[in-house]
Amino acid sequence: MGDRKFYGGSRLTNAGAADTSGALSVEDVRRARAALEGLDVTSWSGRFELLSDANRLRLLLCLHHAPGICVTDLSVALGMSGTAVSHALRLLRSQGWVSATRDGRSMRYQLADDTVHQLLHSIGATHFHDETPTPGHTHS
């Protein structure tokens, strides 16, 4: 193809300048390319891939609403096997989305990533508010 190379779908000349030949609006091309500058698209696509699994998303919603829940209770709430829940939690922990705290012989899980927390809110997730607060504790 001569002096042109392809990188992620965009044509670049040997000098590295992005090719705008064939564009109807060079300004629109410039603005569209500017939208990609400074973003780690690969990282974000990986994040959205994790969210694309309905069971993982359901698990994250449960952790959001019931932080500190254990695998056994998560598996009952989700109607999934403990093995499947543990596997999903391992994957989410490896990405830093979930953290665990030992409580005697069991582990308690909670969200650990603020971006994920905000994404869950953007799809309508809410926090649990007990109807009967414990003495000395108020919900805001």
From TrEMBL:
SUPFAM superfamilies associated with the record: Winged helix' DNA-binding domain
Keyword DNA-binding part of the UniProt annotation: yes
CDD domains the record matches: HTH_ARSR
Pfam families named among the record's database cross-references: HTH_24
Organism, as annotated: Rhodococcus erythropolis (strain PR4 / NBRC 100887)
Entry's Gene Ontology molecular function annotations: DNA binding; DNA-binding transcription factor activity
Listed name of the protein: Putative ArsR family transcriptional regulator
Keywords attached to this entry: DNA-binding, Transcription, Transcription regulation
Domain HTH arsR-type: 36-131
